[in-house]
Amino acid sequence: MKNSLISIAMATYNGEKYLKDQLDSIYNQTYKNIEVIVTDDCSIDKIVEILEQYARFHGLKYTVNEENLGFVKVISLCGGEYIALADQDDIWEKNKIEILVNEIGSNLLIHSDWVILPKTQSSQK
To answer: What is the DSSP string of 11-65?
Structure first.
């Protein structure tokens, strides 16, 4: 399990002001065998531009839906042994995936706790 591919699935919608912080927290994980897959639900902000930037520099995979589908489509695109669901406005602890992979054992599902953080620089824009 320690080398398993983890798919990180995210559905976005008009979350431009939060997305970079979340993607940076995902790509800075201590567990590196990840794929990040995003579907966008017809956003009218600059989310697609951000997704294109992360696709070029990090290999993020994304599609733009023709209708609002939420997590329905993005989960079907995942190829990892495990899927971690991510919201566009979260920020993950640096070792979140590593801890979850080490703790899942024979369980089918595992989750982490959350805390509310003060607004970040990019979310104030």
So the answer is: EESS-HHHHHHHHHHHHT-S---EEEEEEE-S-SSSHHHHHHHHHHHH--EEEE-
Q: What is the pTM of this model?
A: 0.87
pLDDT digits (tens, 9 = 90+) for 73-109: 999 999 999 999 999 999 999 999 999 999 888 877 8
Task: State the average pLDDT over residues 24-42.
Answer: 97
In single-letter form, the type of residue at position 19 comes to: L
Q: Do the domain assignments include residue 43?
A: yes
- Residue 83: closest CA among 52, 115, 110, 56: 110
Which residue in the block uniquely carries the two structure tokens 């798919």? Answer: 7
φ and ψ of 86, to 5 deg: -125, 140
- CATH classification at residue 115: 3.90.550.10
The answer to whether 6 and 97 have CB atoms below 8 angstroms apart is yes
pLDDT at 117 (0 to 100):
64
* Number of domains, the chain: 1
